[in-house]
Design brief:
SBP_5, Peptide/Ni-bd, Dipeptide-binding Protein, domain 3, peptide transmembrane transporter activity, 18 helices, 2 domains, eleven-stranded mixed β-sheet, single chain, alpha+beta, three-stranded antiparallel β-sheet, 540 residues, D-Maltodextrin-Binding Protein, domain 2
């Protein structure tokens, strides 16, 4: 089975994100990659001992968008965390913000003006200094009402603008106090204005152009094969590069991914997206395998313009019918939990939702009968992410058992969401999502999935529903609530509405597994979202 290019989350203008050839950007001269087949062993250099190349296996494609303001690609987001810096960045596990390009964290998170001074001597990978103009350039793009970016949804509601004070100082002006915004600053990667203001440069960024100020510079980018990096010698920030060179392989086939990390001839030291069935074998071979539990989930998304899925009782019935306990036991090998809220149980904003979809076939049948639905036939349009494909038979068996004739249609993620972008008709989509890529705060997670301008809501055709319009107003009121306890309750209350409506809702939350060789690497922490973070890793 293969995992897909962008297996977890869609983003605005998805079609432009999936265009073909890449470009490399690590200096004043920006050369296009050579054509033809590429070798996944192309590291650019040899070396042994501490000079050897770290090889990582990423279970997702590297040919999605690399534009930090737009991308939701698991591979690109992980790579960009090594290439770029925000004013603040966050710990990959705790998500606590720390100074990156800025010299400090604002002392008053509740203020409506945050002033930042840039790190002295910070330079981009082409040798040019990082200036306040570069910071303003990126935020102006994110907040531009005429430019559709994914990052806009994380900032526009609370950030009014960013002003240059002097060459090394900027001030963020907030619409209202919003302490959660500090952690979100990592999503605004500072990019060089002199590179990305050129005509066509944003399209180059989509295809792989990456020039940042972070500890690693991109040295080659081969879509569908590998991306290479080397330590940036002029980096003077808080996360010093430990590896002279890195080679990240994209191997979406699960068996090939496991083979690359295991055995006496293992060609890599670390891999993410490890299949549950292979954990014992890898551990027996001396590898460390650890999981990160978070928002990773299988969700069902209904087309509310396709009858009978406009009826909330039908959507609820199909959720009640799914034997999610069996799904966790059989498909996930125990590495997950049935969803009891949109948020996972480890999220600080979690409480059980007002509607929890335990396995209840009798209730499912009663709801279908009440809705006047008989002889329902459903095609599930599904992404072919390996663990999703493993879960699909349980969904089919569950729905068949209540008299809903079910057909499975797994396809590449690109194919599924191209149909969504083209507004093609569908009934139900089953796919994977993990908004923890962007952060932990519940307001961010819920706005990523729900909102009047939200891409997901366009897919569901639900945004104009009266319930949806009330929901979106409640969400905005919660965003503006200054009292943390009240805000938490408000978010939990509107999640109850989302659970009841079941328009786009998780079935299970599962762990993501990372495997590495502890005889070679130390400082690894398994993260609960796709990709790897090697900023604190070292050779043993």
């Amino acid at each position: 089975m293969r995992d897909d290019v962008i297996p977890d989350v869609p983003a605005p203008r998805r079609r432009s994100f999936l265009r073909g050839a890449g470009a490399l950007g690590a200096g004043a001269a920006l050369a296009a990659c050579s054509g033809g087949p590429q070798s996944t062993n192309d590291t650019g250099h040899g070396g042994g001992g501490k000079e050897r190349t770290l090889t990582a296996v990423i279970g997702y494609g590297n040919d999605g968008s690399w534009d930090p303001t737009q991308t939701a690609s698991a591979f690109a987001m992980a790579a960009n965390n090594h290439i770029y810096e925000g004013l603040l960045d966050t710990d990959p596990i705790t998500r606590v913000p720390y100074p990156a390009l800025a010299t400090g964290v604002p002392k008053d998170p509740g203020a409506t003006r945050w002033r930042f001074t840039l790190r002295p001597g910070a330079t981009f990978h082409d040798g040019r200094p990082v200036t306040a103009d570069d910071v303003v350039f990126v935020f102006d793009r994110i907040l531009d009402p005429d430019t559709q970016t994914l990052a806009k949804g994380f900032f526009a509601g609370w950030l009014d603008g960013v002003k240059k004070i002097d060459a090394r100082t900027v001030e963020l002006v907030l619409r209202f106090p919003f302490p959660d915004g500090l952690a979100r600053l990592t999503l605004a990667k500072v990019m060089p204005k002199h590179v990305f203001s050129r005509p066509g440069a944003w399209d180059e960024a989509v295809r792989g152009l990456a020039v940042g100020s972070g500890p690693y510079r991109q040295t080659a980018h081969h879509p569908k094969s590998n991306t290479t990096f080397e330590a940036f010698a002029a980096y003077n920030g808080p996360r010093k590069p430990a590896f002279k060179r890195m080679n990240w392989l994209t191997i979406v086939d699960a068996a090939s991914r496991v083979a690359k990390i295991s055995g006496t001839d293992a060609g890599a030291q670390i891999a993410d997206n490890v299949p549950y069935a292979n954990i014992p074998r890898l551990e027996q071979g001396g590898l460390k395998v650890a999981g990160g539990a978070g928002m990773n989930n299988l969700f069902l998304m209904f087309n509310t313009r396709h009858k009978p899925f406009d009826d909330v009782r039908v959507r609820q019935a199909l959720h009640y019918a799914v034997d999610s306990e069996k799904m966790v036991r059989v498909a996930l090998k125990g590495h997950g939990k049935p969803a009891t809220s949109f948020l996972d149980e480890g999220n600080p904003g979690y409480r059980p939702a007002g509607t929890v979809y335990g396995h209840d076939p009798a209730k499912a049948k009663a709801l279908l009968k009440a809705a006047g639905v008989q002889n329902l036939k459903v095609e599930i349009l599904a992404v072919n992410v390996s663990w999703i494909v493993d879960c699909l038979p349980t969904v089919k068996a569950s729905w068949d058992a209540i008299g809903v004739e079910t057909t499975l249609a797994p396809q590449e993620t690109t194919a599924v969401f191209t149909k969504m972008d083209q507004k093609r008709d569908y009934q139900v989509v089953a796919a994977a999502s993990n908004p923890n890529q962007f952060g932990l705060d519940a307001d961010l997670i819920m706005h990523y999935n729900y909102g009047p301008e939200n891409l997901w809501m366009r897919y569901t055709r639900w945004a104009d529903d009266p319930v949806a319009r009330r929901l979106f107003k409640d969400m905005e009121r919660a965003t503006r609530e200054p009292d943390p306890a009240k805000k938490k309750t408000m978010v939990q209350d509107y999640i109850d509405v989302i659970a009841e409506q079941a328009v786009l809702y998780p079935v299970v939350h599962n762990e993501l597994m990372t495997a590495w060789d502890p005889r070679r690497l130390t400082g690894i922490r398994a993260q609960p979202y796709p990709g790897v973070n090697l900023l604190r890793a070292r050779w043993t």
